[in-house]
Specification:
GO terms for molecular function: L-glutamate N-acetyltransferase activity; L-glutamate N-acetyltransferase activity, acting on acetyl-L-ornithine as donor. Its EC number is 2.3.1.35, 2.3.1.1. This protein has 407 residues and is of the alpha+beta class. It folds into two domains: 2-273, L-amino peptidase D-ALA esterase/amidase, CATH 3.60.70; 281-403, Ubiquitin-like (UB roll) (Roll), CATH 3.10.20.340. The protein has eleven helices and 15 strands. Strands 1, 2, 3, 4, 5, 6, 7, 8 and 9 form a nine-stranded mixed sheet that branches. A hairpin with a 2-residue loop joins strand 12 and strand 13 (356-357). Helix 7 (292-303) packs across helix 9. The longest helix is centred in the middle third of the chain and has 23 residues, at 251-273.
Amino acid sequence: MNIINGGITAAKGFKATGLNAGIKNNEKKDMALVLSEVPCVTAGTFTLNKVFAAPVKWDREVVYNSEYSQAIVINSGVANACTGATGYQYCKDMAARAAKNLSIPENAVLVASTGVIGKQLPMDIICAGIDKLPSQLGFTIEDGNLAAEAIMTTDTVSKQVAVTIEINGKTVTIGGMCKGSGMIHPNMATMLGFITTDVKIAKPMLQKALSNIINDTFNMISVDGDTSTNDTVLILANGLAKNNEITTENDDYKLFYDALLYVSTVLAKKIAGDGEGATCLFEVKVINADTKNQAVTLSKSIVTSSLTKAAIFGHDANWGRILCAMGYSTADFDPDIVDIYFESKAGKLKIVEDGMATDYSEEFATQILSQNPVTAIADMKSGNETATAWGCDLTFDYIKINADYRS
């Protein structure tokens, strides 16, 4: 696998762009369009929040019932969530408008929105933006950058990644972009993720790969414990790499799976590291656990602990908060054999051995915790299973951002 520059436009046949339509009443880009030159096999995963946005309902219909998709139209600034029948009709209107401009079927257009909950979309502005977007589409990295910028809300940076692999002597490319900074928590964690690839693959195999990978990537991140109404990850595969179609879990599927896992992991970590107000990415590894479920439960409990996140912000090696979070996680384990480490580019330090503090240097611990990223490792010493979760520190700025988000 080769890591390359680029994102949503890296794979063959995919164009994208972004622009300022005026939804946010400022100069920031707020609408994006992604288009494949040919129809795409499509897979998706969506929020498990019972309060889900109109675009989630629309995209489920397209992913599950349409023969193919070919375009995604995205707006930021307004989430189109809790908007009733009107909001769903607006999704249909957005898809119809884009379909007409792109000369493709309405049910081949996916729709995504992110932003403030409860407001209706300003459809005059949205439709004007959809009319402008097609003429600006392009295949370059810069075009992909425009799209990645346009889907941001409280994100401080755009988030993209791309890789290539070889399948049957053909170069297959996977690229993606995502947004997410606050209201991030499994399942899935407000985030939108869009992945494009030129691999030739059967729809069941594409959905299987994405659904399995989500559990180890986007479902292992948390910023604030709030699961969004709009969480969506979509992957479009147009087959232009011309590899032999992947129809079973063979070696070609494994190659593709591993590359997609890498892309999804990078995007997920970019979201966690750019949490609202965050100063660092906080990674939690649980190793040598009895079961995978135990490792997942423990790592998520640590990474979501507000007290632990605050300690990371203060560069305080308050390991008691970690062990406490493990204790209330519902996972069954023996706290008297647990070892805990902190690690960063400044070094690695064991702070707990067999459930008790070691004679560690507070000064060295502070040096480690002053870096970005910071990793906490909990060694259960009881099995062979591992899990990794990602989050961020909890800062004063998180409160400031969310106290006046709508204003």
